[in-house]
Write a structure and sequence with these properties.
With 171 residues, the protein is α+β, with helices and mostly antiparallel strands. The protein has 3 helices and 4 strands, in the order αββααββ.
Length: 171
């Protein structure tokens, strides 16, 4: 067997092992290092599905519901993990307030979307966000079209923060 034959055999072996890892990951079994199943893309969520959402309130009272990835300049999955760790794990009040204040501050400077960092939520021109609330939503998992938001069955407030400003103070 020549060099090309060995290369073809090695490639075939690699793809067989990789395909087996995909199969293993689909059933929730453990990956075999150093090969992984990329199960991040094959996650099956069992109903009912709960997720955290953020409701932003601007200075005239208008509300906007967004994903945690739209309130922190981090990769969307890191933003979600940070919000979950802070508000679902019963972190202390000071930590919860600090994250809410940082999120509102970051939203003022805004940022564009890039790769896995989602664009900042934006209020109407001439206004600023002054309030932020974190909710856990229980969503109905039914067939939906691409880009269609899942229907929320129930929601529970986790934390709410509103900036307190002195009269006449500007942003």
């Amino acid at each position: 067997m020549g060099c090309r034959g060995l290369l073809k055999l090695a490639m075939l072996g690699f793809f067989v092992v990789q395909a087996s890892q995909l199969f293993v990951g689909a059933f929730g079994w453990r990956n075999g290092w150093p090969l992984c199943s990329y199960d991040m893309f094959a996650l099956r969520v069992a109903p009912p599905h709960s997720t955290v959402s953020v409701v932003l309130t601007d200075d005239r009272g208008a509300r906007q519901r967004v994903h945690p990835g739209n309130v922190l300049p981090l990769e969307f999955f890191r933003a979600m993990a940070l919000v979950n760790r802070t508000y679902l794990s019963h972190a202390d009040e000071a930590t919860r307030e600090r994250l809410a204040r940082v999120a509102l501050s970051e939203l003022r400077r805004s940022w564009p979307a890039f790769d896995e960092v989602w664009a900042a939520a934006r209020p109407e021109p001439g206004h600023n966000f002054v309030g932020i609330a974190f909710y856990v939503e229980r969503q109905v998992l039914s067939k939906t079209g691409r880009g269609v938001r899942l229907r929320t069955e129930a929601e529970r407030l986790l934390y709410s923060y509103t900036e307190r400003r002195k009269q006449g103070e500007s942003t």
